[in-house]
Amino acid sequence: MREEVAAARYRQDLPALAKHLEHLAEWNPEPEAWSKWSRYAREGAEAARAGRRADSVCRNCHRDYRRRFQAKYRRRPAPTSAP
To answer: Which of 18, 33, 53, 79 is the most core-located residue (most Cβ within 10 A)?
Structure first.
């Protein structure tokens, strides 16, 4: 995520951020348990397409999932977004 989503956000490359967040929405590791993951990613993509960096959406997702994701899936290779 750092290499794609965070990097695009830092560079303020909003088209790339939107693309990566849409891809991330499909990569929910626990769709049944983590019901907001995909919604957050899609809301972030919408914000990026509207010219915003999606700060509040990222903050909400990190608040809800970051620790659990890192504990269970940190070593799992992140999917790469199609160019």
So the answer is: 18
- Residue 31, domain member (yes or no): yes
Concatenating the DSSP letter of every residue in the chain gives: -IIIIIHHHHHT-HHHHHHHHHHHHTT-S-TTT-TTHHHHHHHHHHHHHTT---HHHHHHHHHHHHHHHHHHHTTSPPPPPP-
Asked, for residue 80, whether it belongs to a domain, the answer is: no
Domain that holds residue 26: 2-73
Rounded to two decimals, the pTM is 0.84
Tell me if 22 is assigned to some domain.
Answer: yes
pLDDT category of residue 43 using cuts at 50, 70 and 90 = very high
